[in-house]
Amino acid sequence: MQNTIDNPFFARLWKVMSTHETDAIRRLRRENLAGLSGRVLEVGAGTGTNFEFYPDTVTEVVAVEPERTLAEVAQQAAATAPVPVTVSTDTVEQYMAAGGEQFDGVVCSLVLCSVDDPESVLRQLYSLLKPGGELRYLEHIAGSGAQAGLQKFADATIWPRLFGNCHTHRHTEESITGAGFTVSRARREWTMPRWVPLPVAEFAIGRAVRAA
């Protein structure tokens, strides 16, 4: 992951998009956080869209968002969250360098598609989890057939430049298991009709565990 980021175009775009999410995506966000407890690290918090969905069994959320404009919006969302949330512009690498206790859970929502080296990031997240801790993920993932062709075309052209380095055709679940996690629950869900020509219409949602 990079150090603190300034991406004014994407920040403006995401601020608008995150306030107009569909009911389907909001439902998936809520489901992704259900049952979490203890200390949680959220990676790439964006505008803090997840914060309102954390259950009261969570005692603390540390949310890292290296894009400074988005982090400012996330700090506003943290002020009204139902659980204590601290927003930082640190990257995961910077947070690790500073030390600190491990977490009971790690949350990744629409972020592993945009990091430069998802395998490296996932290995770092593995080390930040307590044994038996869970990674909760809600991510764009590589499709098949015509969807895969659309994703590859989007990734090779303008999509990453417009949407904060988002790469739609990534085998994220393979990267998760490759980092040492055991996937305990997972499924894929389309949030729009299959005929809609959008490379990010299909999501993977799941839970992966660090070995005890």
UniProtKB/TrEMBL annotation:
Tree of life domain: Bacteria
Keywords associated with the record: Methyltransferase, Transferase
Record CDD domains: AdoMet_MTases (cd02440)
A single GO BP: methylation
SUPFAM superfamilies membership: S-adenosyl-L-methionine-dependent methyltransferases (SSF53335)
GO molecular function: methyltransferase activity
Cross-referenced InterPro entries: SAM-dependent_MTases_sf (IPR029063), Thiol_S-MT (IPR052356)
Gene3D superfamilies on file: Vaccinia Virus protein VP39 (3.40.50.150)
Name of the protein in its database record: SAM-dependent methyltransferase
Organism: Mycolicibacterium tusciae
Taxon lineage: Bacteria, Bacillati, Actinomycetota, Actinomycetes, Mycobacteriales
